Amino acid sequence: MKLSAEIILEGDAHNIEKLFAAEEKAFQNQRASYDLKKEKNKTIFKITAEDSSALRAVLNSITKLISVYEATKAAIKE
User: Fold this and answer.
1) 3-77 placed in CATH 3.30.310.50
2) Are 65 and 34 in contact (CB under 8 A)?
3) For each of the chain's 78 residues, which pLDDT tens digit applies?
């Protein structure tokens, strides 16, 4: 079964795009991948996966990196 998901982040599109530039967009097991697109000040992740476990792994990978970015940004402001 093919699965897909979309994450839309509003704000900091340029920085988010730079942050994910070094990341792998397709994973070694080839069960999941994502595309990143920037529109104005939004970053859009389009995720496709072969199964729910692969989808969850990609979602976790993306959201974990975003969490680190948010925590770093908050620490810099303080």
Assistant:
1) yes
2) no
3) 899 999 999 999 999 999 888 776 666 678 999 999 999 999 999 999 999 999 999 999 999 999 999 999 999 987
